[in-house]
Write a structure and sequence with these properties.
By secondary structure, the chain is of the alpha/beta class. The protein has eleven helices and 16 strands. The strands form six sheets. A five-stranded mixed sheet has the order 2-10-9-8-7. A three-stranded antiparallel sheet has the order 11-14-13. A two-stranded parallel sheet has the order 1-12. Strand 5 and strand 6 form a beta hairpin.
């Protein structure tokens, strides 16, 4: 009998653990950055695909669609207009590079700026993908606490001063200022001005992740940090994953050519998916502004269902600040609940959650917290899933003690 070759000894030390084989989504899935399938503008995307392929389809025979390595020109032109209208940003198409989702944007910025042993400043509760990447790169992470208005500027000033006293100059300040992930906060304009002032004072650039900025309930947002900067010291990334569809994998970077050219030189994929870019440009030009309010109305209703379900099933045991937009709710359970230990029994019951410690650089602070994505489940799935989660949490931790006004046995 032939023995299968064993690749395990060849895997380098420190490599991430192997992926778990996909077996389908959980029945009640409150994880990931999935969006609402019912609000996907499918008919518009189909029409746009047909239109642009009939007109320009033969350019697919050329890498970069005759637009160069920075991405499809029509999509970059759309972004110039959109970012000016929505975020107050003034940029040119030559200062934009299309990426395979904002995750590739993270990798390119890190690849251009970071080396093992460098220091970066990020929000204490932050995007898991950012934290994991920095950890694997061997970078020193300084987490700044947040309050209901986002990153605290007093804590940022203290951290910058302390690092300077040790002769350490951080490579960047990473922030998700507009609908923060996972907390859903929006950094006020006054704090943005203060962050820019501190960044200039200490000679540290800002890395602005604006992936959720389109999904604000009242559609009112402060100007982007990129727009407010007077010294062009902000690298800005965004995505179509939350506003249109995550599976398209289209994001973008906006930065001065001085540093964008460095990122372009390490983008080794021969270009991000061209068909996706063509369809997005064709659709977004005439339809983006009318699509987003429809999407956010649907998301807002799902958030209401989630908050009502948590209040009904957990009562005061579940604490949360109502987010100002986005697709996530950051929930605090009583201190005796360890959401890392809640995860597996909940999953066995068909409920998937994101444990708080995976979204924080202060794992103890987030031990009893969890991130719930409300965009993908239906209203009925939200209600039933939260009820099932409450049953598991009560069985494992004795929390909650009551459901509505009825004491649990």
């Amino acid at each position: 009998m032939t023995t299968a070759f064993d690749f395990t000894p060849l895997v380098p030390a420190g490599h991430p653990a192997p992926a778990v084989k996909y077996t389908g989504l959980p029945k009640y899935n409150f994880t990931g950055g999935n969006n609402d399938g019912d609000e996907l503008p499918l008919d518009g995307l189909i029409a746009s695909a047909n239109s642009v392929l009939k007109r320009e389809g033969r350019t697919l025979a050329t890498y970069g669609l005759m637009s160069g390595p920075q991405g499809y020109r029509a999509l970059r032109d759309f972004l110039v207009t959109k970012l000016k209208r929505d975020a107050g940003m003034t940029c040119t198409a030559d200062e934009i590079m299309i990426t395979s989702g904002s995750l590739q944007g993270l990798d390119l910025v890190n690849g251009a700026l970071l080396a093992r042993g460098d220091t970066v400043i990020i929000e204490q509760e932050c995007y898991q993908g950012s934290i994991n990447r920095l950890t694997r790169l061997g970078v020193n992470i300084v987490g700044i606490p947040l309050d209901r208005d986002g990153m605290r500027m007093d804590a940022l000033a203290n951290a910058l001063d302390e690092l300077k006293s040790r002769g350490v100059r951080p490579k960047y300040i990473y922030t998700i200022p507009t609908v923060q992930n996972p907390t859903g906060t929006i950094l006020p304009e006054a704090r943005r001005a203060e962050m820019l002032k501190l960044a200039e004072q200490y000679g540290v650039p800002i890395f602005e992740d604006d992936c959720y900025a389109d999904l604000i309930w009242d559609h009112k947002r402060p100007p982007a940090l990129h727009a407010m900067s007077k010294t062009a010291n902000v690298i800005h990334i965004g995505s179509f994953s939350k506003s249109i569809a995550p599976a398209l994998r289209v994001g973008y970077i906006v930065a001065p050519w001085q540093i964008l050219s460095r990122m372009l030189s390490i983008k080794f994929d021969a270009g991000s998916g061209s068909l996706e870019q063509m369809v997005l440009a064709e659709y977004c030009g005439p339809h983006f502004a009318e699509h987003v309010p429809v999407l956010t109305r649907g998301l807002r209703k799902k958030l209401d269902t989630l908050m009502e379900s948590l209040n009904e099933q957990f009562g005061t045991a579940a604490e949360f600040e109502e987010p100002k937009g986005g697709i996530f709710l950051w929930v605090k359970l009583p201190d005796n609940v360890d959401t890392l230990k809640l995860y597996q029994p909940a999953l066995k019951a068909g409920v998937a959650i994101n444990p708080g410690p995976e979204w924080s650089v202060n794992r103890e602070h987030s031990k009893s917290r969890m991130r719930l994505c409300f965009a993908s489940p239906t209203h009925d799935e939200i209600r039933t899933g939260i009820a099932a989660l409450a049953e598991v949490c009560h069985r494992e931790f004795g929390v909650p003690t009551r459901i509505s006004n009825v004491k649990r046995s």
